[in-house]
Specification:
It is a single chain. 44% of the residues lie in helices and 25% in strands. The protein is of the alpha+beta class. Strands 1, 2, 3, 4, 5, 6 and 7 form a seven-stranded mixed β-sheet that branches. A three-stranded antiparallel β-sheet has the order 8-10-9. Strand 3 and strand 4 form a beta hairpin. The relative contact order is 0.16. It binds (3R)-3-hydroxy-3-methyl-5-(phosphonooxy)pentanoic acid (PMV). (3R)-3-hydroxy-3-methyl-5-(phosphonooxy)pentanoic acid is lined by residues 11, 15-16, 18-19, 139-140, 142-143, 182, 184, 188, 267-268, 272.
Length: 299
């Protein structure tokens, strides 16, 4: 049995702007998705509590279907044949922290091993990015990069040239669930419409975001948590100006204030997770307890 696993992710700085070739900073989280592959007499896919034959008609298996297709393409490119069949099983990662990227990356890794393809991390990243692009449309690929490389990364995809640099990990970062689903594809479209309508303004906003990311990279390397927090607040203000927050999210952000150096939306906006950089372990514990009492999921 082959086992591989990939971490979930959170965006720290630069969401949306990264889709336009600018850099962002993102991090993996301490929740992972596992994939198991074993030889079988037919190709079976098991995930999201459903089992089906490949190609699966289940909507939930669309990432796995395409991943298997891409692995077969890679075999063909190398003049090999899929001479054995397998059963692939994936565990679940909760929504909002990169379940699609984690399932794609860990399945690519496991199947690469199963067929002795020896795909490098760079190859897994590039194939994974293609899969997510084909299914979700316009995206930066940062989530795939986090699933491949883990840790905290500075990421830029400028005209398909990738820059991925490992940074120090942040301490005392709390992820807080907003209770709502965030539709990344729709929100990317919404920002694109704004970009077409007010190009100079949005370009200006992305230039400022660039500056925030640059400063944040330096502050993370210097472990200057007050500066990181300030930059999170500024980045959040920018996302709010693009109408990516709402009343409930603002209330949640305000609730974190006295425990934190900064807090912001993480990802496309209007749902999924917000992140809060707590002043220390004690503040993190206190904030987490208050949220738990209110039934607000956090980790
Ligand atoms: O909410 P998420 O994790 O899907 O992140 C979206 C971040 C965007 O910058 C809006 C899109 C992307 O692909 O980078």
């Amino acid at each position: 049995m082959i086992h591989s696993s990939s971490p979930g992710k959170l965006m720290l700085f630069g969401e949306h702007s990264v889709v336009y070739g600018n850099p962002c900073i993102a991090t993996s989280v301490n929740k992972r998705l596992d994939v198991y592959v074993e030889e079988n007499n037919e190709i079976l896919i098991e995930g999201m509590n459903k089992i089906s034959k490949f190609p699966s008609n289940e909507n939930e298996h669309k990432f796995l279907n395409l991943t298997i297709e891409k692995i077969f393409e890679e075999l063909e490119k190398k003049g090999k044949k899929p001479n054995k069949k397998f059963k692939i099983r994936t565990t679940q990662l909760e929504k909002g922290i990169g379940s699609s990227s984690a399932v794609v990356v860990s399945s690519l890794k496991a199947l690469s091993h199963f067929y002795n393809l020896n795909l490098s991390n760079e190859e897994i990243f590039e194939i994974g990015f293609k899969i997510v692009n084909e299914i979700q449309g316009k995206a930066s690929g940062y989530d795939i990069a986090v699933a491949v490389y883990g840790g905290t990364i500075f990421y830029q995809n400028f005209e398909n040239k990738y820059r991925i640099e490992k940074l120090k990990n942040l301490k005392n970062l709390l992820a807080i669930y907003t209770g709502k689903y965030s539709d990344t594809t729709e929100l990317i479209k919404e920002i694109h419409e704004k970009f077409l309508k007010y190009p100079e303004i949005i370009k200006g906003i992305f230039e400022i975001t660039n500056e925030i990311v640059k400063n944040a990279k330096e502050a993370i390397e210097n472990e200057d948590y007050e500066v990181i927090g300030n930059l999170m607040n500024i980045n959040h203000g920018i996302l709010n100006s693009l109408n990516l927050s709402d009343e409930e999210i603002e209330n949640l952000i305000n609730e974190t204030k006295k425990f934190c150096y900064g807090a912001k939306i993480s990802g496309a906006g209007r749902g999924d997770y917000i992140i809060a950089l707590c002043k220390d372990k004690e503040n993190l514990k206190n904030l987490s307890e208050i949220l738990n009492k209110k039934g607000i999921k956090n980790f």
